[in-house]
Amino acid sequence: MPIVQPSDQTVEEWRPGVRTRLLVSAATGAQSLCVFEQWSEPGCGAPTHTHLEVEEVILVLDGRAEVWIDGDTDVLDTGGTALVPPNVWHGFRNVGESTLHTLTALPHASPPVRYEEDSSGAVLAIGARDDGPHRVQVDR
Questions:
Q1: CB-based contacts of 42: which residues, under 8 Å, 6+ apart?
Q2: How far is CA 72 from the centre of its chain?
Q3: What is this structure's pTM?
Q4: Which of 48, 56, 121, 135 pairs as cysteine with 84 (C-beta 3.0–4.6 A)?
């Protein structure tokens, strides 16, 4: 029975002001699921990006997040959930005064991601087996 304890997973600084703990992905033996927690300091979060052919659920466990999905913006408080369709540009940032804690799930063990800020158009994979919890480039 595969069990992943949070204490078995490292918390890594994904970008300044954002820490991530990868709970389930290809790196932990999952075949079709990626789940991770993030802690974002005020003003920080996930820049505009898209997951090719993969939808995403973002649950605010604690705090307040401004979320943008395909040009629409809204604010989620603790307990709020955003469902992001596949191939849609989206992102979020902490608009509260304390740390934002989110839980994200995607139905792909190493979901592809492309960042709007990356002019190279590189496609990365979250939680790929060959690079642990880091994003690895899969295409250019």
A1: 94, 95, 96, 97, 98, 99, 100
A2: 19
A3: 0.88
A4: 56
The Cα angle at residue 49 between residues 45 and 54, in degrees rounded to 5: 115
User: What CA–CA distance (Å, rounded) separates 23 from 89?
Assistant: 24
Render pLDDT for 29-61 as a digit per residue (tens, 0 to 9): 899 999 999 999 999 999 999 999 999 999 999
Instruction: Using alpha carbons, select from 46, 26, 47, 3 the residue that is nearest to residue 107.
Output: 26
Residues 6 or more apart in contact with residue 5 via CB below 8 angstroms: none
Per the DSSP assignment, residues forming a β-bridge with 56 are 84
Where are the extended beta strands (E) located within the chain?
11-15, 18-24, 34-40, 45-50, 56-62, 64-69, 72-77, 81-84, 90-94, 100-106, 112-115, 123-125, 136-139
Q: Which residue has the tokens 């250019």?
A: 140
Identity of residue 132: G
Residues of the chain with pLDDT under 70: 1, 129-140
